[in-house]
Amino acid sequence: MAAKKESLIARAGQMTTDGKSGVSGDWDANIHYQADDVAGRYDAERFSTLAGRVFNDRERRLVVGAFAGLSRGSRIADVPCGTGRLAEPLLAAGFRVHGMDISGQMLGVASRRLARFGATFTTEVADAKKLSAGAGTFDGVLCARVLMHFELPEQIEFLRGVAKLTRGIVVINHSYDSPFQRLRRKLKRLLGHQAPARHPISDRGIEALLEGAGLHEIRRVRLNRLVSEAVYITAVPNAPGVRA
Ligand SMILES: C[S@@+](CC[C@H](N)C(=O)[O-])C[C@H]1O[C@@H](n2cnc3c(N)ncnc32)[C@H](O)[C@@H]1O
Q1: 171-207 pLDDT, tens digit each
Q2: First CA to last CA across the chain, in angstroms?
Q3: What is the C-alpha separation between 239 and 208, in angstroms, rounded?
Q4: Ligand 1 pocket list (CB less than 6 A)
Q5: Ligand 1, residues 14, 27, 97, 101: which to mutate, most atoms within 8 A of Cβ?
């Protein structure tokens, strides 16, 4: 029973952002979600099965736990917010959430879904890579399910933008790369599956990513490490002039 549950969670955790087991060469996360049908199907495609629901529930609880050190009413930026999947439990936990995303279509879904939270949920269409300095007005920032779609330099650009929003914690979700995960990927390919994320990250990659974004790691949590690549890293800004 427990093994079956783990396998269900693994399947949901491995889904790519296009809801399939692989992505085509010209797929671009910056533009893919800027379509009404893609935004409208996002949650149903990934999180309506039993596996999806179980994984989603675990991820949502993990995210709330990551911000547990902040007091109720604290302001969290969710970048990218998408359909508000992870903003929802943060709002329910008493935080105020500002959802930012390059896709107005995804934010439209989020606004409808989270209307019951009134003014504690706000949205803004924005490109995370183009956020200006001095915008550090949030108590914490969440950056989930996006970095693994970009090459490392672009990941750094994205996270650097996100990190400008806070002097507090940055909670980052990524796909973890390790010899064990590479073996899993190989087996999956042999079985006819494609790699789940285009640019999973190794320990060295995490170091480079955080250093490039001016952050350092304070905590790392793996979500079902044997069956899923999902990793959550909590980081804080480096003191001025200090390299990681
Ligand atoms: C897979 S969704 C993840 C949404 C949400 N964080 C979640 O976990 O459900 C990826 C999101 O990244 C957004 N995105 C892609 N490029 C972006 C950029 N440059 N700036 C801001 N958002 C971006 C997309 O529009 C999409 O909503």
Answers
A1: 999 999 988 888 887 887 788 765 567 899 999 999 9
A2: 43
A3: 17
A4: 17, 29-30, 33, 80, 82, 85-86, 101-103, 106, 127-129, 144-146
A5: 101
